[in-house]
Amino acid sequence: MAMRPAPRDVKSALAPQQVEGPVTVMGFGKVRFWVGLLAGSATLAALAQSPPPAPAGLDPITFQDIAPRAGIEFVLQNSATPEMHQVETMVSGVAVFDYDNDGWSDLYFVNGARQPKLEKDDPSFYNRLYRNNRGSTFTDVTLKAGVRGEGFATGAAAADYDNDSFTDLFIAGVNRNILYRNRGDGTFEDVTARSGLMHDPGRRKPWSIAAGWFDYDNDGWLDLFVVNYCVWIPEEEVSCTSGTIRAYCHPRFYAGLPNNLYHNNGNGTFTDVSESSGIAAHVGKGMGVSFLDFDQDGRLDVFVANDTTPNFLFRNAGGGRFREVGLQAGLAFNENGQAVSSMGVDARDFDNDGREDLFVAAMTRETFPLFRNLGKGLFSDITYPSGLGRQTLSLTGWSNGIFDFNNDGLKDLFVACSSIDYTLKTSSSLKSRQPNLVLANLGGLRFLDASARAGADFQQEAAHRGVAFGDFDRDGRVDAAVSRIGERAELFRNTSETGNHWLALRLRGRRSNRDGLGALVHVTGRSGREQWNRATTSTGYGCSSDRTVFFGMGKDAAARSIEIRWPSGAQQKLTDVAGDRYLTIDEP
Description:
- The chain is mainly beta and 588 residues long.
- The protein is built from seven helices and 43 strands.
- The strands form twelve sheets. The protein has a four-stranded antiparallel beta sheet, with no helix packed on it. A four-stranded antiparallel beta sheet has the order 3-34-33-32.
- The longest helix is centred in the first third of the chain and has 8 residues, at 41-48.
- The protein is globular and about 65 Å long.
- It starts with 18 loop residues before the first strand and ends with a strand.
- Mean pLDDT is 90; it is low at 1-49.
């Protein structure tokens, strides 16, 4: 997977420097594809460095890594082998959620397992749950909570599926998926089998990468969408080399898989409706999932980011049926008609026009596509006009998110970055360890790479993978937790000094699901500026972020109005709401 075809990007000045060469695939002979992936690495580096000066008046975005002093010891283990099995590079997600309902966001890291048995036979492979000690430090409560996990895990999705007011946890993995039910006493129980989510023991379990919770039929119970990647049979895996050097194989050598949709029956069990809904009719190589109502019909739709195959947009047609419309909507490919190595995805309204957009992380030389929702069921790829094309050419992105990090009222972009072949055995010119990326929203559909100004800690290069978001110290600034292969995770405290105001809304459903996931929130500041955001936990690659709905308010110290459209269809309006606080809103 490390050696990917470089995109035929007519806008890239690097095209003349692409080098094609043979890669030997054992059992397939020589296969031609791009091995000089960064033959133009010097040009790429030149494009990435020396960022232009920040526009006057741009509010800063800065972070400080507080993981060491906060007690975060987690190290992401992938059980790397000389054979370079595909699962090794595909680790692993992060979840941010308040498991004990004390009002402070806790942290959960997903971990790999030892090969070839794919078992967590050593504590270094355990998933880890860290309890937030009210903002300054964290305590590892994994064993006490009973969530160390089983098997080789890749993703997490947190939400209250049984409406008991305690957040539950689903784990996606290579050889096992797990549903942990939160008992409400600080412990969890594995209810995978009795909930109906255990895979058929007579069949090989699909490799699940990620998952997300949403109420597709608006019945008040959260349903589960599970993203599957490809058919991986270790005993039959091909061997790929670049010259004499072993490399991760391209996804083309693995058959794709359909995804799964499980309907929540409201009694603690689920029914697999993948076939009847139309979801299973489409085979891809999924890596990320986001939920949005792109056509504004009141029903949540599903976007699946596929790796080197066309992305999916499943339009919710009602009656339990979905129709795949990615091509018609302009999302299946980038503007050059290419299916890129789509990995993480987030769906939010970045330009404050009331329509939800999509931001996708992809691979070096493919850029990170940004799709603007034009309405009437259509999206436009504005990656280059927005400035993202030039500023993301030299990076590979895994997990990502759209949040307002400087609270200026414009949502920014964050990406966890690293080469796919993080060992960098295939090319001395390829930069495997990469710093993370933050792009400031300048307004006017433009973004600026603000990473170099984000603080010394933010310049750390590593094999980053997952990133999830939340406000760990409740100061109104969105923080980020990032996993790294073979190194301590990063906990980026947002230290942006701007003086801007903010609002953090926690929704509590009555007729709708208890978490209020899927609710659309429209905030109008005193100045008249309007913003929209949706309650969701599904972000990035295999990750789950805090369900709090965050708004940066800029110079508005209060909101003139907050309007909420709940999944049940209920409409709610609050007026003259003071800012700079957390506010819990109950569905009427």
